[in-house]
């Protein structure tokens, strides 16, 4: 049994962070985080779990739009044409942090927490993404609440998306190892 377990009855992002880190450690895989609107909250949630260093590689907080291109390799033309609040930007951030930090999995958050709209997108528009060994997945979110609530919910949702992808990846590997049955 892994040492990375959530406290009994723990729910929310903390419980999901512990579960994700446990799954990664069991598989000897790692994760890296690219954050914009969450400003380091995802990394903080992951590193709050004792033993996180077994699976957590690091993070890049690319709050400024140009850093998404310069550090994470997001297409500059995409950023210029669509802005930073975009599904493809989130996907490229996740793939970029995975590559730059040498992790098996990359996750990313980008969006508008408020108080004002950004890039023509209303407050509460958020994109979260996961990039892994077999591809990736992006989710578009429309969140309500205060700036703090939107940021916290974004953390929870990106960790849930990673958890789902890890479980799907495991099922795919199990099926392949058992001859597709």
Would you mind describing this structure in some detail?
By secondary structure, the protein is α/β, with parallel strands linked by helices. The protein has one domain (12-173): Maf protein, CATH 3.90.950.20. 44% of the residues lie in helices and 19% in strands. The chain has six helices and five strands. It has a five-stranded mixed sheet, sandwiched between helices. A hairpin with a 2-residue loop joins strand 4 (125-132) and strand 5 (135-142). Helix 1 runs parallel beside helix 6 (147-177). The radius of gyration is 16 Å and the shape is globular. Residues 1-11 have low confidence and may be disordered.
* Global geometry: globular
What is the CATH topology descriptor?
A: Maf protein
- Taking Cα atoms only, what radius of gyration do you get, to the nearest Å? 16 Å
Terminal Cα span: 27 Å
Mean pLDDT level: 90
Helix content: 40-55%
Q: What count of domains describes the coordinates?
A: 1
The spatial strand order of the largest sheet comes to: 2-1-3-4-5
The poorly predicted ranges are 1-11
Q: What order do the helices and strands follow? A: HEHEHHHEEEH
Just name the CATH architecture.
Alpha-Beta Complex
Number of strands: 5
How many DSSP helices? 6
Instruction: Assign the CATH superfamily.
Output: CinA-like
The CATH class is Alpha Beta
The biggest beta sheet reads: 5 strands, mixed
Q: How much of the polypeptide forms β-strand, as a percent range?
A: 15-25%
Which structural class do the helices and strands define?
Answer: alpha/beta
